[in-house]
Request: fold
Amino acid sequence: MIWLLMIATGLFTFATRFIMFSGLGRASLPSWLVDALNYVPIAVLTAIIVPAVLIDPASTTIVIVDNPRLYAALVAIAVALWTRQVVLTIVAGLGMLWLLQWLL
Reply:
């Protein structure tokens, strides 16, 4: 039974990608879908970053007070808005995180 399921999902995945690249399907997406897809990157990044910043790995609870990751994230956001440079944002955020973890 598991092999049948694995083969069926493999065929489904292949079919959906084959149709998209072969030219058998429509060439363009509807405009409402294109507009909705513009929000996917920010939604995915938010779903990844917010738990990583707010949830304490030791106790698996949400920590807002005395959370060095939260303060480092706020510094990184400020640097990103001010400079618009990815590398500088990463350096500032990690530097602040390491400094706060060393001090606390």
Summary: Residues 7 and 13 are 10 Å apart (CA to CA). Residues 1-33 form one domain. The two ends are 54 Å apart (CA to CA). The helical segments are 2-22, 31-37, 40-54, 68-83, 86-103.
